[in-house]
Structure formats: structure tokens, C-alpha cells
Amino acid sequence: MKKYLSAVFLFFIFLAIYYVGSFSKIPFGDCIGFIVEAEYGKYIPVATATAHSLYINTIIFIEHLTSLHAIEASRFLIVASGAATVSVIYLTVKSITKTEWASLTAAIVFGFSFSFWRNAEIVEVYTYNSLWVSLFFFSMIKSFTEHKKNYITLAGVFLGLSLWVHIQNVLLIPAFLVFIFYFRNEKKYIYRSLLIFGLLFSSLFILNVSQGLSFKSVYSSDQRSWLADSFKKTPMQYVKDFILSLTYLIYNFNLFTFFGIMGAILLYSSNRKIFFVFLAGSLCVYGFSTFYAVSDNYVFFLPFNIIFALSIGYGLSSPKYTALKKYSWVCLLIPLGYLAAYKTILFTEKGKAFHTVKKYKGGLDYYILPWMNDNAGILEFTIDKKEAPDPVYWMITSAEEYIKLMKSKGYTEEEIKKL
Question: Which of 29, 235, 304, 378 could form an S-S bond across to 285 if both were Cys, CB 3.0 to 4.6 Å?
């Protein structure tokens, strides 16, 4: 139990951080759609690309178990999943490096990374998804470093379950297959892992077809042609997308980006099996996320960010960086970096103009600062019939449905505005 004390410590520290900074009102984005589903309290019997059934059904299960309101049940799941993911990152790095300070630093850097921190404080699917993805990598690393064969099976279980949260995780199948290849001599455990994964994956299609949906409903959406649009960009747009992806990477990991790169180089030199598993997952996820034609594509990088955080830990554990141990506390200053970026951008004329245009959903606060307390709410925006310079029609539609639902439960408009 003693070896897990640091993981427990990290869990409660980040549980407090994410809870204190969590959203005050239902934010803009897809959040309101998830809240509507949770408020109805009916388990989702399909597994479409946008339903995220395991996520919604877990929230509904928490509601039924605890009698929590849909919003608070959602908050509990997200905050707890976020804190648990940070702990799993720590345990995974510790398994690779056997180095306490590097493991703690990598976990804290990931916990404070913008994309993850932001999603740990709003009602979105990506934090819960990150927990399953982190467990998938944890199981694979344990198989390599501790030769515990049951983890080979668990890798298939966790990846299969993650597909029920978000179908994007099919991009991790190449990493899984590389992993399976390296353990091909452990036939009993490999067959079991592949069988469980195959059953969980195929069940998505079986369920949807049994409900009268098309076979492709598992991986496509009738709302927008995002995937098709991703192949219709100009060469310059692809270049801009790649530059933006690097910006995301640096904003998430700041000066620790260097150690992530060094970690990858060191892994190639010293542990090529883990390196190629990481590489297979990274190329697929990073490539897809970079060029996917959605405005908020930063969230799709999170599985890659998990891999990169593990690489940061490996880079820090190198003997040539041992002297940096006494400066590892610098990772605790990451929140100040966000504040500095916020103040700097807001000081410029373009920053002020952008802040004014986006004021309807919080301005620069929404885009630069990861914490979401005292945020602008979509319900208040909808009730007051405000207008936005951006297309928000799908949020308004869900907000109107939720407002109608809450009024039927006796809530007044003033009370709903506060939700």
C-alpha cells in the first residue's frame, strides 16, 4: 500500500483543484447536450459516434445511486476521472522509470496541461475518456516492465471499453496491435486480450443494428461531414493546421515539451518496444487531431498528450537530468504561466478586440485560462435571447430543450439562469 501513497496524494490534490475551479454554470460547447441526456435519466440503448453511451450511462448510474442532480453527477464523474487519470499517469511513469521525482513531475505537468485541465472542469466526455485511455497505456507498460501477464488481457479490456466512451479510440488500435505483436509468444493471454477487445468492439455494431440503426452509425454522424471536410482543405490550410498543433503542444507542456522530445529519443535508444507502441498511437492520434475539420480539435489530442506526458517522465528520469530534481517544483508554477499569457495577450490591441468579440462566452478567459469557475453560461445566454458572432445554433437547441424540461419540473427562468 505504501507504494501507492503518492498516487493517492495526487488524486486528492487534483480532486480539490478541479472541483474548486469547476464550472459555475453550464458552459458553451457540447456540454448542454450531455446535461440534457443526463437530466432525462434514461439509459442510452445505442452506441453512435456522438452518443458516447458509456459516459452518459455512467452519469445516469451515479444519479440513480446517489440522487444527485444531473449537473452535480456530471461534475462528480468528470472531476473524479480527471484526478484519477493524473494518478494513473504517475503510476505508469513510475513503472517505466522507477524514479519518484520524475513520475510526480510528469503527472503534475499533465494535470496542469491546458487541454486536460479545461476538460476536467466542464461537462465533456474527454476527461472520462482519458481515464480509460490512461488505463490502457498503464496495462501495456506494466506488461513490459513487470511481466505481469494479466495486464496483457487488461489492455484489451480497457481499449475495448474506451470505444464505448469515444469511437476516436480506434486510432489506438495500431498501438494495441504492435503491443500484441511483441507478446505473440504469450498465446493464452494474447488470444484472451484479442477476444475480449473484439467482443467489446463488435458489440457496438451489433447493438446499433439491433436498434434499427445503420452499420456505419458507430463511426459516422448525420450532423456534419467533419471527416469528409478534413480532406477538402487547401495545402496552406494543412500547413496552418500543423503549426496550430505545435502551438497546442507547447501551450500544454511549456518548457517540459523539451523533455517529452528527449524522452522519445531516449526510449528509442533504450526500450524500442515501448517506443514503437507509443509511436503507433502517437502518429495516428496526432495526425487525425491535427487535420480533423472541427473548430475545437484541441480536445482530440488528449490521448496523444497522455503518451507525451509519459515521454516527459522518461526524459526527466535520464541520469543526465538528475541535477534538475531540485528544480522540479517549477511545475507547480504552470498556473502562473496561464495568467501571464492571459495578461500579455489582453494587453495587446488584437487581444482586447478578440476579448470583446468573444465576451458572450467569457472572452479570453474561455480560451486562455483552464479553470472555469464564474464562467458565462449557455442557459442565461439563451433565456436572455443574446446573439453571438459565431454559429451556436446546436447549443441553443439543446439549451431550449433543457429549459423546457426544467420548467416542467417547477424551475423559474431566474433559477435556470444560475444552472
Answer: 304
Tell me how many degrees the CA angle 230-280-195 measures, rounded to the nearest 5: 100
| CA separation for the pair 165, 173 (Å, rounded) | 15
Task: State the DSSP H helix or E strand holding residue 292, giving kind and residue range, or none if neither.
Answer: none
Residue 361 contacts residue 109 (beta carbons within 8 Å)? no
Shortest CA distance to 36 belongs to which of 412, 415, 396?
396
Does residue 132 sit in helix, strand or coil?
A: helix
Report yes or no: 338 and 354 within 8 Å, Cβ to Cβ. no
| Alpha helices (H) along 317-377 | 334-347, 349-357, 364-368
Grid cell listed for 97: 522509470
Task: Give the sign of the dihedral formed by CA 76, CA 82, CA 87, CA 92.
Answer: positive
Three-class DSSP category at 309: helix
Cell numbers found for residue 13: 490534490
With a CB cutoff of 8 Å and minimum separation 6, the contacts of 298 are: 115, 248, 289
Specify the DSSP class assigned to residue 348.
Answer: S
More confident residue, 173 or 288: 173
Query: What's the one-letter identity of residue 98?
Result: K
Average of per-residue pLDDT across 333-339: 96
First to last CA, the chain: 41
Single-letter code of the amino acid located at 302: L
* CB of 86 closer than 8 Å to CB of 262: no
Weakest mean pLDDT among 22-26, 202-206, 233-237, 245-249: 233-237
Query: DSSP string covering 372-409, please?
Result: -TT---HHHHHHTT---SS--HHHHHHHHHHHHHHHHT
**pLDDT tens by residue, 377-418:** 899 999 989 888 888 888 899 999 999 999 999 988 888 888
What is the average pLDDT score of the chain? 92
pLDDT tens, 351-374?
999 999 999 988 999 999 999 988
